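Query form — protein Putative acyl-CoA dehydrogenase FadE17

QUESTION: What is the three-dimensional structure of this chain?
INPUT:
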Amino acid sequence: MKRNETPADRAFRAEVRDWLETHLSGDFAHARGLGGPGREHEAFPERLAWERHMAAAGWTCVGWPAEYGGRGASLAQQVIFNEEYALADAPARVNHIGENLLGPTILAFGTDEQRARFLPPIVAVRELWCQGYSEPDAGSDLANVQTRAELGDDGWRVTGQKVWTSLAVESDWCFVVCRTEPGSARHHGLSYLLVPMRQDGVDVRPIVQMTGTSEFNEVFFDRARTDAANIVGAPGDGWRIAMATLGFERGVATLGQQVGFRRELEGVIELARRTGALDDPLLRDRLTRAWIGLEVMRLNALRTMAGVASGAPGPESSISKLVWGTWHRDLGELAMDVLGAAGLVADGEPYDLGDWQRLFLFSRADTIYAGSNEIQRNIIAERVLGLPREHRP
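ANSWER: The structure tokens for Putative acyl-CoA dehydrogenase FadE17 are given below.
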């Protein structure tokens, strides 16, 4: 990316780097490196304070149009921001779902009233969001959603259960895919509702994961209410909008994610040097392949984003999810193989995991959440390559 940067891009990179270096100090110096997958429990109030500090300085939603509180940054500058943020080891974002998923969806499909109501609190990090997609019987098969909503005189009433809802316990709002047409099936009859979380009728229950943490939750809606106007798009158009949201999820923030992947890979290589595992030709080959895979991942992400710089992402974004999910899961396995038998022993009582053990355990989920590998392959085959649809009884 740097080889093709314009003078304006280089100046932007310097501005971002200098601001982060200056402000990740003092009260926020200890926030470096906190949070992330499997560690979202770490210092949440401090990370929230940091992100509000960023907002006050105009460093949230940098790619959004200026009229909606962003900086109108180009695609290249958005990549630069996310890369520099990761390189600075800044804390994991608490507003990722609002800024990178819901916000772009509202920009693309929302009404003027919805933009005025929901975008400013996202920019200011005053309202946090979670995603109400998966259900016990509709995880990878999202079209099997059974949560339903009925429109009455007092607005929509939502009833059902969602699961694997990241950061629901901290969230103020949830965008919920639910069935609003009785008797409908599969992709038909779904709608995309914006539902307040802090009300009677919403019950959030944390799920303890293999890592011992609980960033995922299950959420129960029992006639939870939201205004009639809090539907994005038309009733029954929820599937199209939900798929666009997933495409936004695989946008420029993934470039920052890959900086973190590179740091992890460098750590595994250094671990292999210390343990002598680097002398094993098979492990050395796997480390080399991991480095090559990371380079391919970056180039593919840049190519995909350049192709969808205007408008909502298409099904091609599934390629990125398939690639990075598989790569990161394999890195977790590689880290454990480099550790050897020592990786089987916890660092302390009762369940004190090391960084590589946590990476291995959490990365098992990478090929499942946000769309499983099997589903991504189907999307690529049917909607990108135009192959015949999978037979369904």
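ADDITIONAL NOTE: The first strand starts at residue 129 and ends at 132.
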